[in-house]
Structures
1.
Amino acid sequence: MLFAIEPSRIATTGTTTIIKTTPVNGNMKIFAIESSCDESAIAVLGGDERKFLIESIDSQIPVHRHYGGVVPELAVRGHLAALPRLIDQWQKSELFSVPDLIAVTYGPGLAGGLAMGLGAARALSIYYNRPLVGINHLRGHAFSPFIPPWESNQKICDFFPHLGLLVSGGNTLLFTIGAGGDMDVHCRTVDDAAGEALDKGAKLLGLPYPGGVRMEKLAESGDSHAFDFPCAFRGDNSKLSFSGLKTSLLYRLRKMTIEEIDHRKNDLCASYLHAVCRPLCEKVKNHIKTFRPRSVGISGGVSQNRKLRREIECVCASFSCPLLCAHPRHCGDNASMIAFAAYVDRIHGEETPRSFHPKLTL
């Protein structure tokens, strides 16, 4: 039997929350909300049809570009304006029907953004009298590479045990998913995430926000071996680090004139990007040797980087291990991955968390 939280059946005694569960099935229609950072998103997953009926995202990049990064207060204002509009559009669409389950991101992320999403999800749960579940944002990313095979009617369990690489602006980690859907993290960054390192490096080079995308374009016509940037923890498969890489670029630029930087910007971008990709590929290779997975997945916003994806593909090919990649629209922050993670958790009987306080790790 599979279970989810029914908000109307939550009893509180002192500081302890007691959750009475309501059975649900694996073919349900799931409505999801994602609001962990600067993207307001909703999605509706049709379990029986194995597809997403609705996928809507309101991006705040134009608002935050002026500041060179996400401003939490402005992000909250954006969610406050966008979420009611997106929900209203869904309710008025021809595809609308009352969902069987409501899912919402409960962390990690910006507290204000998470609160906006959770408030909206709880209101809908009460209004429609439907169960509400909280989904870890990173778990959503972790399962997003399984969406393409799921849509083509393949069994997800056929790809377990699975090795996953999650590379985003806020998180970088390697994990395995066992036969029962259980997840274990084996390697993570001890400081900056890979995406954060790319954006910070791009900012040092004077590239506009979000700089990682612009850096990738310039790197395509540069020499990836023109500059030798450091790679930390090469002998430790449990750790990644990118803050030293950013500092190395800073010191390198201080030794160059503005003219030299402009003249060699493509080489700088290519070498810097190579220094980000190299440890990721090495860690994936070493973990494949250790765990012998039946599949490898790559997810998160940085997984769209063509150089990283090509190099991970080469690593997987050398082991004859299939590589699963999330759809481009599911690599960044989106509600579809939250709905899908809720769907997978119901299939494998994942226990619903006892509270919706922001969860900061996977």
2.
Amino acid sequence: MANKEATVAELTDLFTSSTAVLLTEYRGLTVSQLTSLRRSISEHATYAVVKNTLTKIAANNAGIDSFDDELVGPSAIAFVHGDPVSVAKALRDFAKANPLLSVKGGYFDGNPLTAEEVTKLADLESREVLLAKFAGAAKASLFSVAYLFNAPLSKAVRTVEALREKESQKENN
């Protein structure tokens, strides 16, 4: 009994501390395939095979009831502690190569996700790519702003210089 309570407490902690949670069914996958999947997402998530009844209790303790109907059959959960998009992509790609893995749903940013929504999440660009695009756009904007600030100043300098030349020509004539 104490072991079950400890498991529920640990799962509850994983649910509350994760940036996203992705529920899968792994029926028919081998241990080596599951190990390969774990390795592929280990940078951003922890992948755990779970007991449905204990997971349901832990999810409810964490305020997540969207998994209640999905926790049937052999279930495993990716508890995301990094980039959810990278994990969703890795699960999608693994499922394409190993059709026995199916993504049943998820929970992200306080909202339940259907399997289709997890696929849409996987179709997004990764956080790093989005940040790089934003940085590029911001840099371009900064150059534009710098040009706008410098343009009147350089125009004024050219005008003053032209006036000086004109004055010096008048003095020389």
3.
Amino acid sequence: MTHFPIGLHLAASASLALAALCALAIAADLAFRPQKMWIMNAVWPITALFGSFIWLAFYWRWGRADRKGKAPMWASVAKGASHCGAGCTLGDLTVEWLVVAFPAIATWFGWPALFAEKTFAVWIPDYLVAFAFGIAFQYWTIVPMRKLSPGQGLFAAVKADFASITAWQIGMYGMMALIQFGWFRAGLGHIAPVASVEFWFAMQLAMLAGFATAFPVNWWLISTGLKERM
């Protein structure tokens, strides 16, 4: 059994509970005020799972369907980056629990033959599945706005989100490595297993780091017209 300090355990539990409440609050509001772009009905609650009260406040100010006025550039960029965040969140939730249920998945991606650390092997399917979800979110944003064919929409979605998702995953993996290996293992003697609140608390922090690295990339993508401004 892997043990963590009680203070960390309680803080992690509280952070996850608060984020879940924020996601539920957004979902409840969306039930009465659905987004004009239907995919955002999924993006907003999903991003609150890591963004917590910050994303709740952001949604309340710039995301609600009855909001008046044009959003400033930074808010449009944050919305664009949130597509990546939603995709990465779903990708990581899916893959991490799949590996728990089916450990052989890690061996398919190089553990322990190529990677002595199982975490690094799992990051490969994490990226691939997050990329697939992220492209799906972007596809259902671009196609209705530009009225594209399915083939054109898929190409545009990949072009718009490849750099963004990659930038997000770099920041996320970097922070996750710092927490798991620089804090948990170095300071506590072990990394957090997936089936622990400490792991998902670390993932919340890692997702925020991913947002930070994806934000300037999304600013560039929107400024150059590769990604739609929302």
4.
Amino acid sequence: MAFEYTNAKGTKYYLHQTLVTLRGGGRQQTIYYFSRKAGPKAIDTVPEGFKVVENTRTGLPVLKRK
């Protein structure tokens, strides 16, 4: 079951992660993002050291380091 976050407006978002290759040096980095639909890259928990915060203006959830 994917991690689900409901914002103040009542919209549900699902946490995803993917591994991307950076252009500068070819280094790989994991990125996390929220989507309205749970896809194949959805993850079950918030990564350790992160917390979910909501943008007060737009209502979009983002991950922030603790």
